[in-house]
Amino acid sequence: MGRKNSYLEQIDKFIGNKIYSLRLAKGLSRLELSKAIGVTHQQLQKYENRSNRVSVSKLALIAKAIDRQIPYFYEGFEAADNIPLENENQRLCPEVVRNFRCTCYREHQDAINTLVK
């Protein structure tokens, strides 16, 4: 990733979180998105976990695959300065939504809704 730079690391973290959250909100598995952009699911995981920096060309492919424009991934970055990007509960919310959408039976959805309440 090159030399350590705290500002760049903040940007990487912010973009990685956006990729992760939007992928889950779209109901895509890591494998599905990685195939769409031509990388392994491990590489996509490294983008999401901020251990590898996303190149602009890969970001363009990710944006296209999840129906967003590149500026979306930078929106709110300056406002997010000094604000924790997300905690573990916030990371679970998109996953819960995705799993809820996959539930076919109304009774199961009602039971999940009751449990979450």
Layout of secondary structure:
Blueprint: H1 6-25, H2 30-37, H3 41-48, H4 56-65, H5 88-102, H6 106-116
Helix pairs in contact: 1-5, 2-3
Describe it.
The structure is a single chain. This protein is mainly alpha-helical and 117 residues long. It has a domain at 6-86: 434 Repressor (Amino-terminal Domain) (Orthogonal Bundle). It contains 6 helices and no strands. The protein has helices at residues 6-25, 30-37, 41-48, 56-65, 88-102, 106-116. Helix 1 (6-25) packs parallel to helix 5 (88-102) and helix 2 packs across helix 3 (41-48). The longest helix has 20 residues, at 6-25. It is globular, with a radius of gyration of 16 Å. It starts with 5 loop residues before the first helix and ends with a helix. 16% of the residues are buried. The mean pLDDT is 84.
The CATH class designation of the domain at 6-86 is: Mainly Alpha
Silhouette: globular
How far from one another are the termini? 42 Å
> Helical content, roughly?
55-70%
Secondary-structure class? mainly alpha
Q: What's the number of extended β-strand segments?
A: 0
Task: Note poorly predicted spans.
Answer: none
Key descriptive features of the protein:
117 residues, single chain, 434 Repressor (Amino-terminal Domain), 6 helices, 62% helix, mainly alpha
How would you summarize what this structure contains?
Helices cover 62% and strands 0% of the residues.
